[in-house]
Amino acid sequence: MQAGGLFLKRFKGKSGGIVLSIAILLLLVLVVYPLAKILYQSFVFDAQLSLKNYIKALSEKGNYLIFLHSMEISLFSAVLSTLIGTLLAWVVARTDLPYVHLFRTAFVLPFVIPPFIGALAWRQLLGPVGYLNKLYMYITGATEPLWNMYGADGIVAVMVLHLFPLVYITVLGGLERMNPELEEAAQASGSPVFTVMRQITLPLMLPTIASSAVLVFIASIANFGIPAILGFPENYFVLTTRIYEAITRSAEPNSLSLAASLSVLLSLVAGSGLLLQGLYLKRKEYTVLSGKSMQPNIVRLRQHRTWVFLVCVAMVLITSIAPLVAILLTALTRAYGLAPVPANWTLQNFYDVLFINPSAQRAIRNSLLLALGAATVVSLLGSIIAYIIVKTKLRWRYLLDFVSNMPYALPGTVVAVAMILAWLKPIPFLDVSLYNTVWILLVAYIAHYLAFGVRTTTGSLAQIHPSLEEVARNSGASWLQTFRDVVIPLIRPGLFAGWFMVFMPCLRELTISILLWSAGNETIGVMVFNLQESGNTVASAALSVTMIVFLMAANFVVRKATGGRLGY
Hints:
By secondary structure, the protein is mainly alpha-helical. It has 26 helices and two strands. The protein has a domain at 54-306: MetI-like (MetI-like fold, Orthogonal Bundle), CATH 1.10.3720.10.
């Protein structure tokens, strides 16, 4: 009764009820219906309810190997990324490394570059006819490349190079807020630097490091671009690429149902990572943060300073400079395979993708419009859902929170398959189909990134005192007027943050788009992938460079507009 009274108080009048109803309806349509559809379809075989899809997915040798491939790639990527990211975070946060402020930003750059573009860049460096392999064969006279990075080892290598910043960013934040008194005490007792790090710092940071490792594991198992670009040439499949093949390349009558069952299995594997993380953290509760401001304990590297600095420079060259140079050289070269020397350089590839190729122009336009549309809708819808969660006492408000966050916790491939199954047929009573239109991409983006809109405004709403709304309501304003004129201006920073957090990943998105695009509705990511697959490597590289420039510019705007609080 109390909850109902508060509900009526918060949403007094017709406008509040209408807005609430629309928000709940959109959640049902955008999230609940597609996810329920994929779960149901996974049990449909030959138009009958059955477990045959799961039996086939788990029993066939090919699918079983694919499952093992996914686990192998994700585990190795998580372990190596965690080691590299943790060490780099410690060096930046805890040592007197020269030019530390430059390294602080440089180590994040691989995270800004879309992973599939990174895979293309490394393919051009260490593919069978890559620049480094050709240089090696020219110098040594060898007839075989030094390393052909197609297959499992190449996928793991590129995954690690692009995902270690996840660990680095998380652990760096923890180290900078950590109480340094235990480290100082250990050093005062004469313990060597690396002994203190191994026996004090790392054990205290273990929960944070474990959380980062889980994030990398989930990101690896959900990634499509890297396994597709480096796995397809060797017929090496993981779960995401197998689902893509089942939908786009398979003529089997139950291919969609098989894709649905594989998607459910993929979700279970990703979810198991989160579950294990939760169980682990319950047993590992260390108080490493204090309520007062702490100055991190800076370790003097002394004789180690030079080689640590050189290792950090090498990391920046390998993870950021080398792939960017490779993709730029390819974009400037007249034809793929020619030596990347000034005599073979041209800007024609950029001119073609920006002004001649209608598909590339359309892809750029579509990506910008989809990113703008998704970011705007997510910000508005997310703020309304966040308002219900924070400002009401409805018993089911946390269910809204759970539902709005669920699609982001799922791999993008799963979200895409859910959208296909939900909107493959025309909407009942409307005779309107979203499939094979740009609208299905917009719906998928909104569903997948809705959690950003909710999370970024929840904190801002919690800081608004109820009296501010009450004054407006007492003066005769409706709920909608109060929300528009009082609440929105006060939570504008959170809305702004959520908007950019959705805009940037939508602009670079591939995993969802590759399954949902149709002729005339390409995105930049899809166009880069398709140009590469069709053999037009130089055009693919030129469009990749264009995307990177867009992302860097957007990141710069975010940094300036938020005073460095957001962006990289």
